[in-house]
Design brief:
The chain is α+β, with helices and mostly antiparallel strands. About 15% of the residues lie in helices and about 35% in strands.
Length: about 90
């Protein structure tokens, strides 16, 4: 899903009240759910069509007290939006 597709999907929910919880499925089969706790920009490197790795943006990495403790995003990583569940 792209950010444009997510925006379109969310626009269809504009009739819901602002305090409606946002909840994520823990897997594709719906074997558990967890409330969304954070939305974070980052870099994504796809390893397969369904899985990949998260990296900080260079700006995020440089803002850390010890940026060298964090891996730079490799070539091929693309900007992405990460949704983090409570657990």
């Amino acid at each position: 899903m792209t950010l444009d597709e997510l925006r379109t999907a969310i626009a269809k929910l504009d009739h819901l009240p602002g305090d409606t919880p946002v909840v994520m499925s823990k897997d594709a089969e719906g074997n558990g759910f967890s409330p969304l706790v954070e939305v974070d920009p980052g870099m994504y490197l796809a390893e397969t069509t369904y899985s990949g790795e998260h990296y900080m943006t260079e700006e995020q990495r440089q803002a850390e007290p010890n940026p060298d403790e964090y891996s730079e995003a490799p070539d091929g990583a693309v900007p992405a939006v990460f949704l983090w569940p409570t657990n």
